[in-house]
Amino acid sequence: MNLKITLTGLAALVCFGVQPLSAKRAPENLNEKAARIHKHALTVDSHCDTPLRLDRNGFDAGERHDVLTTGSCVDYPRMKEGGLDGSFFAVFIGQGKCTEDAYTKVHEQALNIFKAIHQSVNHNSIVAGIAVNRKQFEQLAAQGKRAIFMGVENGYPIGSDITRVKEFYDLGARYITLCHTKNNQICDSSTDTLRAGGVTDFGRDVIKEMNRLGMMIDISHISDRSVLDVLKYSKAPVIASHSCAKAICNNPRNLNDDLLVSLKANGGVIQMCILSDYVKKPLPNTVRDSVFKAIRAKYNNFEGLTDEQTNAGHKEWDEATLHYPRQLATVKDVVDHIDHIVKVIGIDYVGIGTDFDGGGGVADCRDVSQMGNITLELVKRGYSEKDIQKIWSGNLMRVLDKVEQIARK
Known about the structure:
Radius of gyration: 22 Å
CATH topology: TIM Barrel
Largest sheet: 6 strands, parallel
CATH class: Alpha Beta
Number of strands: 9
Mean pLDDT: 92
Distance between the termini: 40 Å
Helix content: 40-55%
Strand content: 5-15%
Low-confidence stretches: 1-22
Shape: globular
CATH architecture: Alpha-Beta Barrel
Number of helices: 17
């Protein structure tokens, strides 16, 4: 709790010839300043894949885990340690065949993930709660609880049934990433062979329905043409929940400067992903690369799998990550992206979306307990407390507020 000196109390101190304590304090050093700002900022991560772990036997997000021995990046105790007030848990479904049978299967998988998230939060209700808007987020933060938002990563489980968009909304999802690493029934992916168009006719219906409901449209993973289509068809601002600047790291998952300018015109926001390969081009490592290539091949690039196959694949991936560590980018590299985006489109259009538990993590921010290192680097580069608050949640919450406002019209 902040100690506040009332005017009456201050007057009394002056009358007795005693200076206020603040007058005797030494100037803050950068570490102290960063710690103070981080403590008072309302912080949110727009994308983590922790639900991938919730179905695994014995994993409880209410218990503290060690990233170096388990590979786990997020749990409620470490969220508190890292000063992270809220996080968007992703309902992730890998891309498979676009058939009605497949749609039925992955829809059921998505519902199971929603169920696992709700069960985790309910089981840990003393320390966490579900949030779907800014008000609930702020209320939970005031209570000292972690706010768990939800987003759907990959519109694939919508299938051909537009009513599933509302179903996911009613379950708590407040954004949908339209596709993942492959093209789907909604749009083209940035990492697949481009088709004739970007957003499909059904994709336009999905955009319209999301606008109607008040769900944020997530353009991470989708192709450049698809991004432009979304910006054309959406009546509300959009987000890139976990992407970086292509000018800094030339990866197809990142946004080029022209798209950043278009995103600003839309009023949206790009949330900095800290998956190392998107932050800084990795050094070649043939042994490590061959191991992960084999795992991807064994598990069909994590697409069209059963729940059991998915869990087995991610377990092998985690074990390989521990046995074959790589040279990671750093928080300084992450903030280089923020600097560039601020230079191109301004401070009001950038935030943080780590992709923790989905590959996210850099050398000095491997898990959620180290989030304060991002604030420290921002302070070192001269960002003000107001700017840092915008980056940590203000910009994203502005978009969520606007999306809800447009839906009410």
